[in-house]
Recover the amino acids of this structure.
């Protein structure tokens, strides 16, 4: 019956696979279980046994690390101990208790001195549970020094006073440890009037050392991008620096490297049915970051050079070639990559005499204004500006250009310095246009002789000749009348 061996082989294979799977699972459990290591007697006084007349007062060595009891009243941990690693929740203790215990076992507990080890042991137990520490050996009072003496006056009286003094000092020091905060947070601010300026502040992180670092900015106080020994809650002034010459908006980023010598944690060991012990829990190291919510605009200083189209003109418009260039920095761009449009204005003055600057004289009369707004596609460069009005008459015309932050659109003003104003001097030769006074018209000379008018009147010369003839005729008539009269008288 050939089918039977086949079923038997299949069953065997299933059994083998099941065994292999079980071994694999068991192996995984074994490899992931916490490591176990037996504790041994460290430095201290008393009897190394789970229970004894006066107990064990000092450290327990586990893998070469001095550990200390954190659950007063339990037997000494002479059996195999399980290492749970560095924990911030060991034995249900608070961060304040764990920080104090970590400080003591790290700073003073790694010692072979039995007096110091015993003193650390009493202080650590007192931080973990003061009431049980005081009374677990029958001491009725409320003094840590009294509880120590209650044991050591019989166990090692020659060391009692020293251990009392050290235990109380260590306890006070451990209780005073500042819990290093893991809640550090950074805040960046931007000055609305000058986006190159602002502050960086770190809140939280109590009891830690902090190194602040900036990207695309420096600290105003030092001119560096890194600042050590900072104080939480303090706002440090910063100065933003564009990362390149592209003129595009940029983002300031900040980070804080937070550290503390003592973490609110311990290296946690447990021994079944016996003591829980604590070894050094290490330090605190973490980093927090932040960055601008809105990219910062590039700030620059703009200036103008100008040239009138013609130095003299009989009449017409005032025509000016105006060149705008950055005096400091680069021409900024908006978020879409276009150059920001800058507005420049000018007042044109008229004077009778050739102008002399740099100030506008009292007799200069303003006759009109000019305006220029740069093109987003061009930015800086030369623009021709023609007045919408005509020159009113002879004189010297001088344009005085200026760029003011107050004259810009709200989106453009942040690209200029706070209260920025660039103004041209009065009387710059390239800005003067002269309209000369036209000459007075003179009558043309007439040498041709005048003909007698059709009315029969003579010209001046003829009139003088005629008048002379008439006078002679009248004189002759008068003489003849006189002679005739004399003859009549003689006849009578």
């Amino acid at each position: 019956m050939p089918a039977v061996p086949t079923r038997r082989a299949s069953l065997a294979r299933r059994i083998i696979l099941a065994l292999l799977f079980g071994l694999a699972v068991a192996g995984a459990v074994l490899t992931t279980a916490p490591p176990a290591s037996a504790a041994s007697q460290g430095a201290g006084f008393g009897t190394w046994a789970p229970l004894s007349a006066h107990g064990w007062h000092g450290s327990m060595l586990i893998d070469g690390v001095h550990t200390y009891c954190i659950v007063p009243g339990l037997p000494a941990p002479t059996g195999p101990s399980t290492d749970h690693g560095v924990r911030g929740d060991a034995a249900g203790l608070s961060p304040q208790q764990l920080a104090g215990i970590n400080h003591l076992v790290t700073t003073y507990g790694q010692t072979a001195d039995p007096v110091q080890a015993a003193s650390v042991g009493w202080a650590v137990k007192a931080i973990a549970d003061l009431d049980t520490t005081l009374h677990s050996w029958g001491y009725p009072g409320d003094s840590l020094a009294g509880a120590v003496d209650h044991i050591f006056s019989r166990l090692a009286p020659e060391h009692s006073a020293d251990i009392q003094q050290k235990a109380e000092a260590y306890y006070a020091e451990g209780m005073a440890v500042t819990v290093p905060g893991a809640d550090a947070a950074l805040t960046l601010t931007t000055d609305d009037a000058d986006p190159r300026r602002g502050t960086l502040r770190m809140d939280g992180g109590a009891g830690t050392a902090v190194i602040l670092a900036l990207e695309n900015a420096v600290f105003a106080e030092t001119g560096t991008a890194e600042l050590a020994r900072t104080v939480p809650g303090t706002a440090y002034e910063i100065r933003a620096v564009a990362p390149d010459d592209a003129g595009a908006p940029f983002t300031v980023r900040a980070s804080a490297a937070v550290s503390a010598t003592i973490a609110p944690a311990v290296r946690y060991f447990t021994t079944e049915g016996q003591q829980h012990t604590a070894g050094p829990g290490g330090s605190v190291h973490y980093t927090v970051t932040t960055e601008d919510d809105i990219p910062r605009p590039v700030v620059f200083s703009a200036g103008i050079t100008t040239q009138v189209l013609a130095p003299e003109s009989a009449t017409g418009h005032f025509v000016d070639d105006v060149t705008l260039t950055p005096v400091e920095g680069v021409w900024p761009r908006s978020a879409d990559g276009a150059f920001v449009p800058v507005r420049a204005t000018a007042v044109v003055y008229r004077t009778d005499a050739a102008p002399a600057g740099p100030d506008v004289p009292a007799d200069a009369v303003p006759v009109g204004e000019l305006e220029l707004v740069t093109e987003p596609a061009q930015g800086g460069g030369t623009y021709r500006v023609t007045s919408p009005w005509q020159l009113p008459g002879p004189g010297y015309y001088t344009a005085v250009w200026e760029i003011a932050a107050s004259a810009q659109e709200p989106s453009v003003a942040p690209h200029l310095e706070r209260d920025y104003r660039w103004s041209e001097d009065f009387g710059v030769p390239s800005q003067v246009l002269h309209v000369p006074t036209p000459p007075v018209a003179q009558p043309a000379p007439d040498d041709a002789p005048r003909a007698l008018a059709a009315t029969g009147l003579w010209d001046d010369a003829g009139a003088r000749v005629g008048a002379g003839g008439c006078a002679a005729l009248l004189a002759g008539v008068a003489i003849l009348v006189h002679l005739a009269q004399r003859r009549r008288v003689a006849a009578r």
User: Anything to note?
Assistant: The chain has three domains: 36-175, 185-261, 301-435.
